[in-house]
Specification:
about 400 residues, mainly alpha, Growth Hormone, Chain: A, 15 helices, about 80% helix, disordered N terminus
Length: about 400
C-alpha cells in the first residue's frame, strides 16, 4: 500500500482550499441563527436561513455536475467559491430577514459548485487503495478549519452579528485564489473505470446497489446532523436551553471538530486497510449515541460530552461514505456524485426545520431524539451493505 506522501499533490491542494472554506464558515456558523432572530423571527424561521442554503445546493447540484463535465473541476470550484464569498459579504449588509434569506440561498448555488467539483476531482485522482486516506486528508482541511473557526466565531459574534459574514467572505476569497492558481495545470484522465458488480453509470443503476444506498443514507444523516442541526439548533440550545452565552456555542462546536480531527487520519487508514463497512457502522452508531445524550435534561457537562462523542462518530462518517462512493461510481458520472452530495443537502435542509419544529412544540429533547433516530436508521443501512474496498477490477491505464 502506498505511503500517504505518494498521494497526488492535488489532494493536499484541495485540503488547503477546504481549510479556508471551513475556517470562515466555522466563524460564521454561531452568528447565523442569532442574526436571523435579531430581525424578530422565530426559531423555525431562523433555521430556514440554514435550510435555504442547503435547498439551493440541492436544486443546483445536477447543474453543477454538468458544468464540471463541460468546463473542468478547477474553474467551477473557483467560480463557485467566488459566488459564496460575494453573497456572504452582501448578507452581512442585509437590513431585513427576507434579504438575508435570499442571499444565503444564492450562496448555496456556489457551494454546490464547489462541493460537486471537489468530490469529482478526488474520485478521479486516486484509486481505491488510497481513497480512505485521500478523503481523510481532504476532510482534514475542513476539520482543521472547523476547529479554528468556531473558537473565533463566538467572540466575533459577541462583538457584532454582522462581522462574521465579512470574515467568511475574506476566507472564501483566499480559497478561490488557491483553487484557481494551484490547480491550473491539473490534468485528469477521462477514461472510464471498470467496476465489478455494477453495470451502467446512471443513478438508477447505482441506487440498486445496497452499498451506494448505505453511503447515500449515511450522507443524508451527516447533512441532517453535522451541517444542519449542529449549526441551526445547537446555538439556540446553548443560549435558550443551557442559558449560556455564544462563547459556549463556540466551545461546543470546537470540541466536536477537535474530536473529529483526532480520529480522521486513523479512520482513513483503517478504511483503506480493513474496509468501508465496519467504519460506516461504527460511525453512524457512535454519532447516534452522542446525539442521544442531548435527549437527557440539559447540563453543560453533558452537552460537552455529547459534542465529543458525536464528533468522534462524524470522523468515521467523513471518510467511509466518500470511500464507498469512489468504489462504486464510474470515473465520470456527475449524476451519481451529485445524488450523493444532494443527500447531505436534503438532510441539512429538512433536519433543522423538523428538529426545530419539534423543539418549538415539544422541547429540545424531542428535536435531538429525532436526529438520533435518523442516524440509527443510517446505521441499519450500513449493517446490510456489502464491502466495497476490493470491488475495482484492475484495467489498463487505471490509476
Amino acid at each position: 500500500m502506498a505511503a500517504p506522501r505518494s498521494l497526488p499533490r492535488e489532494v493536499y491542494v484541495l485540503a488547503s482550499v477546504a481549510f479556508f472554506v471551513a475556517v470562515g464558515y466555522g466563524i460564521l456558523a454561531p452568528a447565523i441563527p442569532d442574526f436571523a432572530r435579531d430581525f424578530g423571527v422565530g426559531r423555525t424561521a431562523a433555521a430556514l436561513v440554514v435550510s435555504a442554503f442547503a435547498f439551493m445546493r440541492l436544486v443546483s447540484a445536477f447543474g453543477s455536475g454538468g458544468l464540471v463535465d463541460r468546463f473542468g473541476e478547477r474553474w467551477v470550484m473557483a467560480i463557485g467559491i467566488g459566488i459564496v464569498a460575494t453573497t456572504s459579504a452582501a448578507a452581512g449588509l442585509a437590513q431585513n430577514y427576507s434579504t438575508l434569506l435570499i442571499l444565503r440561498g444564492l450562496g448555496g448555488v456556489g457551494s454546490a459548485m464547489f462541493t460537486v467539483s471537489a468530490a469529482a476531482l478526488l474520485i478521479r485522482l486516486v484509486g481505491n487503495e488510497q481513497r480512505g486516506r485521500a478523503s481523510g486528508i481532504f476532510a482534514g482541511g475542513f476539520l482543521t478549519g472547523g476547529i479554528i473557526g468556531p473558537v473565533f466565531g463566538g467572540p466575533l459574534t459577541e462583538i457584532s452579528l454582522r462581522l462574521p459574514f465579512f470574515v467568511y467572505a475574506g476566507s472564501l476569497t483566499v480559497a478561490g485564489l488557491v483553487a484557481a492558481v494551484a490547480l491550473r495545470n491539473t490534468a485528469l484522465s477521462t477514461a472510464p473505470v471498470e467496476r465489478r458488480g455494477l453495470r451502467g453509470s446512471g443513478v438508477g443503476t447505482a441506487l440498486r446497489d445496497p452499498a451506494y444506498r448505505a453511503a447515500v443514507g449515511a450522507n443524508l444523516a451527516v447533512g441532517w446532523t453535522v451541517f444542519g442541526v449542529r449549526f441551526a439548533t445547537i446555538p439556540l440550545f446553548v443560549t435558550e436551553g443551557l442559558r449560556l452565552g455564544a462563547v459556549w456555542t463556540g466551545v461546543g462546536l470546537g470540541l466536536f471538530a477537535a474530536a473529529n480531527a483526532l480520529l480522521l487520519w486513523p479512520a482513513g487508514r483503517f478504511t483503506d486497510r480493513r474496509g468501508r463497512r465496519p467504519v460506516l457502522i461504527a460511525g453512524t452508531t457512535t454519532c447516534g449515541v452522542g446525539l442521544a445524550l442531548l435527549v437527557l435534561p440539559p447540563a453543560l457537562p453533558l452537552f460537552l460530552a455529547a459534542m465529543v462523542v458525536a464528533g468522534a462518530g462524524s470522523a468515521l462518517l467523513t471518510v467511509a461514505p466518500a470511500a464507498v462512493l469512489g468504489d462504486v461510481a464510474p470515473a465520470r458520472s456527475g449524476s451519481v456524485v451529485a445524488v450523493f452530495q444532494m443527500a447531505a443537502d436534503v438532510g441539512a435542509m429538512t433536519g433543522p426545520l423538523l428538529a426545530n419544529a419539534l423543539v418549538d412544540s415539544l422541547g429540545y429533547s424531542a428535536g435531538f431524539g429525532l436526529t438520533a433516530l435518523v442516524m440509527f436508521i443510517a446505521a441499519g443501512l450500513a449493517v446490510f451493505m456489502p464491502e466495497t474496498r476490493d470491488r475495482n477490477v484492475p484495467s489498463q491505464g487505471q490509476a
